[in-house]
Each structure stands twice: as structure tokens, then as C-alpha cells.
Design a protein that fits this description.
By secondary structure, this protein is an alpha/beta fold. It is built from 13 helices and 14 strands. Helix 2 packs antiparallel against helix 9.
Length: 403
């Protein structure tokens, strides 16, 4: 007897996942057999949350901040975010523009729900964070991927492709400057071109700025700061990176006030509110001592430089040095060819089993687009110590050279 009423919803067939976690499972399984692992696969941080942030949370709990709070977030945090995000981007925001979230990821989901109807199109970067594609399709939209092209300094958005993808049914574009997984940063001209297209075609923009302050030189710029963009742009803000708070689940949507009201209503329906006492930790992170963040960036810079140096010296690997994020996205095409390996997944598995080095591949960040001929992998250096970077990548270098 078939109980058809107990079937799952059809939309689950359209729901993706964060595929980098599958690499974690493979690495854990290999480690369970007694093998050494060098974890470059998951973009988590093995650095401590700054002590003043932790102390602020402890005080909030002691003060009884353990109940419900406003769906949009406590006033102190909304004000702090409005001041800080605005000042760093040369914009004026008020608390009415800020909706606190349990992490940065919910901003993606709520942006899609708020601005896209079923059947409408949303452009998104590919390779890119896989949740973009997942949420567009889950809510019945048409996910249209735009690509990056390599150049002498890293990668650039294929603006001709973006122009060709925009049609009468296009509703929004997701734009990830300081990009995961490739570490690329837009030039001013590229950012201005995306803004011009958004204005020309009257598109909403989700600007994923998770790594806005995770940079080693220079100053970040936001597409929201360009003329005509603040009123159509939602900024994804997260505490996960800058304050090493990945497990705390704290972020925010910075949005035009009318859209912020919609997102706050979605908060009420989804989770009621973001954890009350955690928000006081966020206030301290923004308003308090910033020395912990500076130390963290120094540590990450040292790791980046070591990883780039070893990868660049490895036969058949081509890698550029990003000025932000904590990811490297080297081209391993020639290395694979020299080893007689044609499948990217097979290369990753062989690297794990022969060296213990675990990393994600391009295929963990969206469906490959037609015409892709080069093979790329992603190394995250945020969760691995410097000594292990040196040991693991030396082993990888020796393995590739010996085959």
C-alpha cells in the first residue's frame, strides 16, 4: 500500500546544499583510518573569537538577556551596524535599514523570498557560493549563472555574458565582490558596469559583502555606494569572518527601509528573533576594541603568503595572490595533465590519499558552465596552522613532481 499523502514536497528536489561539507566527510573518513589530514577544504576559522566579544556575551547572559527580543534585532546592534556599515561605505543608514539575522546565510534566503516571484530569473556568480543557486531554484525561480574569466591579476566577471543573460523576466542579480571561492575582487570599472546594468534594467542587487573587512591591503568598496544603488541594494553582512564567530550565527541584512520591513516580517515567521545575548556580543565587536581582528588578519596574511609561495612553486599549478578573503583558487590543469589525471574529483581523491591534503574543487561551487576547459581547486587557509600549511603543501608538491 502506497501512502502518497506522506510524500515529501516536490520543491525539495530543487534544494541544493553546501557541497564543501561532503569534502569534510571524505576527509574525516580517511582520518578515521589513522591517516594524517591537512584540512584546506572548509572555510571555517580555527582562531579564537576576541576575548572582549566573548565577555560581552557572558555579561548579557548574566544580565538575563536570554528571552525573546525584537524580530529585527536589538536597537543597540541595529544602530551600531547602521553607523559602522554606513561609515565604511560612505553612506547614511539608520536602524530602520538594519535587520539582524542568525548568520549571513539567511540574508540570501530572505532576499530571494522578498523580491523574486516563481518563474522569475535571478543572476548569480558561478563558481560561487552554492546556496545562491539552491535558494533561487528552491523558491521556484530560474537561476542564471554568470562566469568569471581568468586574467593576469586573477579573475574578472564576464560582463558580456551578464548583459546577454538579462531579459524582461530578470528580477535581481547576486553580486559577490571579494568572492568565495575564487578570492577575486572587482575593479572599479567592473563594479560600475554591474551597477549600470542593475539601474538600466531596474534590478534588485544582493551584494554579498561577507569578506568586506577580511583584506590584507587596500580598501574595500561597495556597489551600494555608487550613485543610484543604495535604494536597490541589500548588503549581506556577517560577523562570522571578521570576528571569528562562525558558530555564533550572527549577521544582518542592510536594506532599503521598505524591504527591511519585509525581511523583519520573514524573521518573525522563521525564527522569531536572533539569539538575544549573542547580539550584545555583536555590539561589542563593532563598538569595542578591534585589536583581536588585527591580530587575526596578520595570522591569515602569513598563512596566505606561505600557501601561495608553495603552490606557485609546484609544477603545473598557477595561482594568484588575492588581497582579501582567505581562499586561493589555483589552476591545476597542467599538474593533472602531467600526472595523466583527467577528472577533477579523481585528482582531489588521489591528493587526499597520497598526501593527506584535503581541498574543494571548482565543482563544489556550482554546475560547470559550457566551454570550461581549465581545472581549478579551492584552498581555504583559515582553519589550518602555518606549520601544517608548510608540511601539507610540501607533500603535495613532492607528490605532483614525483608522478
Amino acid at each position: 500500500m502506497t501512502l502518497t499523502k506522506l510524500a515529501f514536497a516536490d520543491r525539495l528536489d530543487r534544494l541544493g546544499t553546501e557541497t564543501a561539507f561532503s569534502v569534510s566527510l571524505a576527509a574525516a573518513e580517511w582520518a578515521s583510518r589513522g591517516n594524517r589530514i591537512f584540512p584546506f577544504h572548509l572555510g571555517d576559522l580555527n582562531l579564537a573569537t576576541p576575548a572582549n566579544v566573548v565577555a560581552a556575551m557572558d555579561k548579557a547572559i548574566a544580565d538575563g538577556k536570554t528571552g525573546y527580543c525584537q524580530a529585527a534585532g536589538i536597537p543597540q546592534l541595529r544602530e551600531a551596524l547602521a553607523d559602522d556599515v554606513g561609515a565604511r561605505r560612505g553612506l547614511q543608514y539608520s536602524p530602520a535599514n538594519v535587520v539582524v539575522q542568525p548568520g549571513g546565510k539567511p540574508v540570501i534566503t530572505k532576499f530571494i523570498q522578498a523580491v523574486m516571484n516563481p518563474g522569475e530569473e535571478v543572476l548569480y556568480p558561478n563558481p560561487g557560493y552554492p546556496i545562491y543557486e539552491s535558494q533561487i531554484e528552491y523558491f521556484g525561480g530560474v537561476a542564471k549563472a554568470y562566469r568569471y574569466l581568468p586574467d593576469a591579476t586573477g579573475f574578472r566577471i564576464d560582463l558580456d555574458q551578464v548583459r546577454a543573460l538579462i531579459g524582461p523576466n530578470t528580477r535581481a542579480i547576486i553580486y559577490n565582490d571579494l568572492q568565495n571561492p575564487i578570492g577575486a575582487e572587482s575593479t572599479d570599472a567592473e563594479r560600475e558596469a554591474i551597477a549600470a546594468l542593475a539601474i538600466e534594467h531596474d534590478l534588485w542587487v544582493l551584494s554579498d559583502e561577507a569578506y568586506f573587512e577580511m583584506r590584507y591591503s587596500g580598501t574595500s568598496s561597495s556597489i551600494a555606494s555608487l550613485p543610484g544603488m543604495q535604494e536597490r541594494t541589500v548588503i549581506l553582512y556577517t560577523f562570522s569572518k571578521k570576528f571569528a564567530m562562525t558558530g555564533w550565527r550572527l549577521g544582518a541584512a542592510i536594506a532599503p527601509a521598505a524591504l527591511a520591513d519585509v525581511i523583519a516580517k520573514l524573521n518573525t515567521n522563521d525564527e522569531s528573533c536572533t539569539t538575544h545575548f549573542v547580539q550584545y556580543a555583536g555590539v561589542e565587536g563593532i563598538r569595542g576594541d578591534q585589536s583581536g581582528t588585527a591580530v587575526m588578519l596578520d595570522t591569515l596574511r602569513t598563512r596566505r603568503d606561505a600557501a601561495v609561495s608553495l603552490l606557485a612553486a609546484t609544477p603545473g599549478i598557477d595561482v594568484f595572490t588575492p588581497e582579501a578573503t582567505f581562499y586561493l583558487f589555483p589552476d591545476v590543469t597542467d599538474a593533472m595533465a602531467s600526472m595523466g589525471i583527467t577528472d577533477l574529483a579523481a585528482f582531489a581523491e588521489a591528493a587526499l590519499h597520497n598526501t593527506g591534503v584535503s581541498f574543494c574543487t571548482r565543482r563544489h561551487f556550482g554546475r560547470p558552465q559550457p566551454g570550461e576547459q581549465h581545472h581549478y581547486v579551492r584552498f581555504a587557509y583559515s582553519g589550518i596552522e602555518l606549520a601544517d600549511i608548510n608540511e601539507g603543501l610540501t607533500l603535495l608538491q613532492q607528490w605532483i613532481a614525483s608522478v
